[in-house]
Specification:
The structure is a single chain. The chain is an alpha+beta fold. The chain is built from three helices and eight strands, in the order H-E-E-E-H-E-H-E-E-E-E. Strand 7 and strand 8 (117-120) form a beta hairpin.
Length: 136
């Protein structure tokens, strides 16, 4: 994310932590937040920018109990964060989900922008027609 994009979300910018965002076609951008209210930036777990380049968003789901256990996280009153699912041209599947911080100390949330319109990502926030490859 750029400094301007961080400021647009009213987040404090920490030079040690500039969250990576996922850019889909048609200017749809997804970014991690520390919590579902968007109170600060988070981090994506499983986001390998080079691996996702050109991969197609195939859908979303909630983080499973086994994944909570694997991360060492406890469920909060916010519920399970979304898992973003992608597949590349070779059929490799990727699962990306938000953490509350770069150290992955707990679950986070996903927010997005479609042009200038902001939205909180839910598992079915992006219509099938927008399932486009990840851009650079």
């Amino acid at each position: 994310m750029t400094d301007d994009e961080i400021a647009a979300e009213y987040w404090c910018h920490d030079n040690l932590h500039t969250p990576k965002q996922i850019v889909l076609a048609d200017d749809v951008r997804l970014f991690p937040s520390a919590d579902p209210e968007g109170n600060g930036s988070g981090a994506f777990v499983g986001l390998d920018k080079d691996g996702l380049m050109g991969a197609t968003y195939t859908g979303g789901r909630e983080l499973a109990d086994a994944e909570f256990e694997q991360m060492g996280w406890l469920k909060t009153h916010h519920g399970a964060p979304p898992v973003l699912q992608f597949e590349d041209r070779n059929g490799t599947k990727y699962a990306v989900f938000p953490a509350c911080d770069p150290e992955h100390n707990g679950p986070g949330a996903v927010f997005g922008r479609d042009g200038d319109e902001a939205f909180r990502f839910q598992t079915h926030s992006i219509p099938e027609s927008d399932n486009a490859p990840v851009q650079g």
